[in-house]
Design goal:
Radius of gyration: 14 Å
Low-confidence stretches: none
Number of strands: 2
Strand order of the largest sheet: 1-2
Largest sheet: 2 strands, antiparallel
Helix content: 55-70%
Shape: elongated
Strand content: under 5%
Structural class: mainly alpha
Order of helices and strands: EHHEHH
Oligomer: single chain
Mean pLDDT: 86
């Protein structure tokens, strides 16, 4: 058994689709990881250690507000990373 932040899985599941919907942003691996890390810092963790905990979190993930929070966090992270990327123009 391990402890896992289920929120991280949810962000990974949605990040590529949300990045693709934003035009004119860098889609390199460094920016993608920065977006994910920043989005996770905006969101409350959802740690699970048991099947019961995973089931509860999956049900919670179906709630509309939970999904909106994830989309908002990723979109805000994209805006920040796009204006302040951690690489030079040549490394894209």
């Amino acid at each position: 058994m391990e402890v896992k932040n289920y929120m991280e899985s949810l962000v990974w599941q949605q990040v590529d689709e949300i990045i693709a919907a934003h035009s004119g942003i860098c889609k390199c691996e460094k920016c993608r990881y920065d977006i994910i890390a920043l989005a996770l810092n905006f969101l409350p963790p959802r740690y699970v250690a048991t099947e019961k905990g995973q089931t509860y979190t999956r049900i919670k993930a179906l709630e509309q507000q939970f999904t909106i929070d994830i989309l908002t966090a990723i979109s805000n992270a994209i805006k920040i990373v796009n204006t302040q990327p951690h690489h030079t123009e040549t490394s894209q």
